[in-house]
Amino acid sequence: MQYAWAAVIGLVSGIASGMFGVGGGIVMVPAMMYLLSPPIRDIKQAVGTSLLVIIPTAMVGAAKHWSQGNVEWRTALALFPLALVGGYFGAWLTTRLPAEDLKRLFGGFLILVGLRLILFR
Fold it and tell me: pTM of the prediction?
């Protein structure tokens, strides 16, 4: 049953990634926490697993968007260097934060993003 849930999570997060540019954190992490525990032990393992899975997912989605003319290369190149630094720093921070605090921060982040999307243009 775990593999069936994993397949559904992969499909939903892939669709969300291609449509909205999200999927790993917004879809995959919460779904793995609730539907794949065990083998997923905590949010840190869900985040790490999600990041690994989202690499090919993002590449496929980005290639499709590029073929449709939906990639602004100058902006992407400007974002890229510090996004790498931020990704490394964020992963390092997980070694300093307890899993429960990380889970609360993640939940708060999702609420703020959701409210921003709903209430503001």
Answer: 0.87
**Tens-of-pLDDT digits for all 121 residues of the chain?**
899 999 999 999 999 999 998 888 889 999 999 999 899 999 999 999 999 999 999 999 999 999 999 999 999 999 999 999 999 999 999 999 999 999 999 999 999 999 999 999 8
The span from the CA of 24 to the CA of 10, in Å, is 9
Print the domain residue range for 95. Answer: 2-119
Pairwise CA distance, residues 55 & 106, whole Å: 20
CA distances from 68 to 14, 49, 72, 89 (A): 18, 29, 11, 33
CB contact at 8 A, 50 and 33: no
Number of structural domains the chain divides into: 1
Would you call 15 helix, strand, or coil by DSSP? Answer: helix
Q: State whether residue 71 is helix, strand or coil.
A: coil
